[in-house]
Every structure is written in structure tokens, then in C-alpha cells.
Design a protein that fits this description.
The chain has 207 residues and is of the alpha/beta class. The protein has a single domain, classed as Nucleotidyltransferase, domain 5. Helix content is 39%, strand content 14%. Strands 4-3-2-5-6 form a 5-stranded mixed beta sheet, sandwiched between helices. The chain is globular, with a radius of gyration of 16 Å. 35% of the residues are buried. The N terminus is likely disordered.
């Protein structure tokens, strides 16, 4: 990777000096189905009947095949409100396996909270229906999927639609921060960028 450009953590970054569009990957990691995204495409990692260490190794190795040449990676962080969910310990281990691998490869990354991802996609993190009832997490994921499909002209269908849409939002957030927004995003949505702990080291973009 060449042409390093330094960005700050307070606002979306300026366009890279050379004008090259960075290769950014979004990772919505999960033990069952993980969503992967880059500009204009999505994919998934499915683990089937794998369990334990074999499952974690398979997810991490497959994810590497998507991001090994990336300039930047955005990973969805933990939903701490779901601290009692089954597999929480394994998910934490998986995220750190990915983070350590990115670090060892010298690939800059950011961990984005689920709330920040939802705000960037829909304008806010908490939604209610017409009867003032709080929407379920699955219903909110549906909003994220619908808004993301509309804004970026993507098709998220089938059983993995939410995973792919989430990954696409993460990637779009990083592209925006790097100065290469994929679409115009209202201020109510773009404010989510300020809540992400973006890296302070130089981000190099391959020519």
C-alpha cells in the first residue's frame, strides 16, 4: 500500500491526495452467518455444523480471503445490551482474532457499534411503531436493510439479507470517513461517524 494520507477522528476525512478509491471491506461477523461487503457487492460466510475452535478458525480464515488486500476494514462491534446471548464469549474471541490478524497485517480498521451503524443507515438507533411500541431488533434490522437497499441501489434478499445489509453500511461508513462517500447521507445519519473511534495512524491507499 502506498500514498499514505493522515486523517483525524473528529469528522469525515478529506479525499486522498492521489485520488485513488480505497479498497474498504465491511465485516458483520457472526457465529452462524457473517456478512461481508465491499463497494457494489456483498457476500457471506456460513459455518453450517461447525462448532468451537474449528468454527472460529474457519470464519477467521475465510474472512481473511476478503480483506487481505484491503486498505481499511470496518467491523461491527459487540451489542452490550445482549450480554447474556448464547455464544457471547465465542463472538468476543472471534472479533479479537480478526482484529489481531488485521493488526499483524498492518491493515487499519475501526470497530463500529451497532447503534452507530443503525444511525448511519436510518437516522436514529431507537425506533417505535405507530402505537409508540419499541421495535424489536429484527424489525430495526429490516429498516436498516430497506434504507440501505434504497440509498445504494443494492439488492439484499434471502435469509442473509440483514447480514449483508449491515456489512454494507459498515463499509459505506468507512468509505464516507475516508472521503469517498458512496451516496449522499443526511446530517441526521452522518452524525454517526463522530461516534466511531477511527484510527489516528496514517491510512495508506493502494495506487
Amino acid at each position: 500500500m502506498t500514498a499514505p494520507t493522515l486523517f483525524n477522528t473528529e469528522a469525515p476525512a478529506a479525499t486522498t491526495a492521489a485520488g485513488h478509491r480505497p479498497l474498504v471491506i465491511g465485516l458483520d461477523m457472526a457465529l452462524g452467518t457473517s456478512g461481508i461487503a465491499g463497494p457494489g457487492w456483498t457476500d457471506t460466510i456460513r459455518t453450517g455444523n461447525l462448532r468451537g475452535e474449528q468454527r472460529l478458525r474457519y470464519i477467521a480464515d475465510t474472512a481473511t480471503s476478503f480483506y487481505r488486500l484491503a486498505d481499511f476494514v470496518a467491523i461491527e462491534g459487540a451489542a452490550f445490551s445482549h450480554a447474556k446471548q448464547v455464544g457471547h464469549d465465542e463472538m468476543s474471541g472471534l472479533r479479537w482474532m480478526i482484529r489481531c490478524d488485521l493488526w499483524s497485517r498492518g491493515i487499519p480498521f475501526a470497530v463500529v457499534t451497532p447503534d452507530s451503524r443503525t444511525i448511519y443507515a436510518t437516522g436514529k438507533a431507537r425506533w417505535k411503531d405507530e402505537a409508540d411500541r419499541k421495535l424489536t431488533p429484527k424489525q430495526v434490522k429490516g429498516l436498516v436493510r430497506d434504507e440501505t437497499a434504497l440509498r445504494y441501489g443494492m439488492q439484499f434478499t434471502g435469509t442473509t439479507r440483514y447480514d449483508e445489509a449491515d456489512a454494507y453500511v459498515l463499509m459505506a461508513m468507512a468509505m464516507d470517513w475516508l472521503g469517498h462517500p458512496l451516496a449522499e447521507v443526511p446530517p441526521t445519519h452522518a452524525r454517526a461517524l463522530k461516534g466511531v473511534p477511527w484510527p489516528t495512524q496514517p491510512v495508506a491507499v493502494a495506487s
